[in-house]
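assembly run, all chains below
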Amino acid sequence: MCLGVPVKIIQKNKKEGIAEFKGIKRKISLELLDKVKVGDYVVLHAGFAIQKLDRKEALKTLKLFDELEAIGNE
Amino acid sequence: MEMSKDLLDGFSDSKKTRILTEKIKNIAQEIEEEITLMEVCGTHTVAIFKSGIKSILPENVKLISGPGCPVCVTPNTYLDRAISLSRLDDLILTTFGDMMKVPGSSSSLEKEKTRGRDIRMVYSTLDAFKIAKENPNKKVVFLGVGFETTAPTVAFALKETKTKSIKNFCVLTAHKLIPPALRFLAQSNDLKVNGFICPGHVSTIIGTKPYEFLVDEFKISCVISGFEPLDLFQSIYILLDRLKNKKARIDNQYSRAVKKEGNPVALNLMEEVFEQEDSVWRGIGVIPNSGLKIKNVYREFDAQEEIEVQVEKSQEPKGCLCGLVIQGKSSPLDCPFFAKECTPQSPIGPCMVSSEGSCQAYFKYGQKKSSKGK
Amino acid sequence: MITKSNSGEKISLSHGAGGKLSLELISHLFKENFKNKILNRLEDSAVFSLNEQRIAFTADSYVIQPIFFPGGDIGKLAVCGTINDLSVMGAKPLFLSCSLIIEEGLDKSILQKIVLSMKKTAQKARVQIVTGDTKVVEKGSADKIFINTSGIGIISKGIDLGKEKIKIGDKIIINGTIGDHATAVLSSRAGLEFQTKVKSDCAFLSDLISSILKFKDKIKFMRDPTRGGLATVLNEMVSGGNFGVLLSEEKIPVREEVKGFCELLGYDPLYLANEGKVIMVVAPQIAEKILNILRKNPLGKKAEIIGEITDKFKGMVGLNTRYGGTRVVDMLLGEQFPRIC
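ok done. output:
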């Protein structure tokens, strides 16, 4: 029920940031998160960043898939 | 360590999803029996249809849609009140685009807009808040619809309203909560769901703990899933794997965005502004503790309490099966109105209006009994 | 016809959006009342003969907001749109009319800018604006300016396009990326506040199309996917026929930024308006040749074969998704609104 898109924070001024996604930019609110810095990726929903995206976890999820693939090929 | 676009693009990799399709076929064969999985979130419904997953799933794996479509479950009475508010002088009604086409008892916001009412679509509650600041002589009402993903954003706007002493902004809330709805479904006698695909973005706020009861009390597995094709395929695979091993578990497939503890800042904001109450889900009825009401300390910004308006007597369309459809107990194809009297241009129930509603998804993406064009 | 059920019914924005509701309005009200063989074909231009010369004749109104948008303006749009409606019927566009309805209070300098834009576009396209009309209405009765253009073109012998020429196995080609115009316009409207570098693809296609008309009867049908987008024109094409369309998702060209805009707001690029695109249904044996010719033209650099005519299903448009599934692509139901859920 919730359109949430992974966007990159390219500028920040206190609790406001400029998000970028596939070349589109928008001012968004960072009020729902602590410690967001420029370069972070966040989930954008209705004009707010609602959670930070974690690279390690993303890699883990993709790795899980690769392991799955390997199982089938044995 | 930095996230990157390439990494995120990996979740749309079609080569990977084709491999998963094979694995899903194999594991479904091993399980043999009929499996029913429910995706709760409307955005998942749309993502599933768009990617064509349903057409590739093996015969014995059924995907049904649950009540995670805020438009579908918002009661008629709420729409009727919103419509009545929009008819008041010097009032600007602001809303997410989602609500525009939903039929109330005798009209809709889209129809009211054609009649000249000041109804404005916004992308964010903050845009509505801005409209209030720019129009101090008018009352601005915002329709607060959505689940735990959206509620914190509305809570923040209300906090700002109080802090900045803005006198002309208020919210008509209809926020609902997912875990109580899941409990209602799990307790239901006639619903046989073998696994739940849980809403990814709601979970970024509430974390993983609220789903534990599904495993502890009902022994039903659930996967918190992302929205990219790889996420969905992977989540379906994980559920089937749990079923094969007869092990009920919660899996967080969307771990790149969902932390165990959720989002504490958002949760605290919600706690500060809202309190739980019993809530009516359109087509289902009352689910205990499943709705959010604005707390007394923010009462002056509650459009329900503060603005008096005459609302017509609400009526639900007779014979419409939306209620059963959103509980997964009926398919849109079972409804006597589906694709005949009830189409997206002339919807009878909300499931046909919402782009996430099962009925519209079935209609748009081609699963119709009758032939197209009628 | 006015029936008991529709008396008191109001015309909504969805009736003008180019999808199902628009088509219904056209069929029930206009076609029903203005009945004649030429209108009944409901094509982009009317085609008829005058002293054995085949003529194409079309009209269109332009009410776009905002009137200046990245990549164009309402004037350029009005000239290109009408030229394109003639060109997709295989006609060489020659003469346009230009009628303006201006809201009282509009800055003269804005009107001048628009007229100069129309002049520039018409000159480049080698068409002449030969007649027109101007009306001024009270403030509030029009949104700055509305433009209606009608156009006349001539169709050479040997060129005879129409749905009835389409055969199973024919290929469907588009000359470039979809959704650019709608993205440019929507993002420049107040209230959404998204910044993007996407420009409208607003352009006249007469030269691009004339470069492939030499294939004569191997070109079966053309249409420009304006309001309602690619999905809508393809659905209109197959409606009532004994064939369907099967598209390949991977082949449909969409800019990254347009994809991004759609993901952010819940839009679908298949339904977004284009103003510089043409879909062509052509005989399979010349499809590659046509592609090569189109790609040499700046307006066809990203041309692709995006699908084919199929007998697997009738009257429907199907899409093979990049994930190996298949789904139906229905017509636009009414105006698309942005969503957050």
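Chain A has one domain: 5-72.

Strands of chain A lie at 5-13, 16-21, 24-29, 41-45, 48-52.

not gonna interpret more than that til we talk
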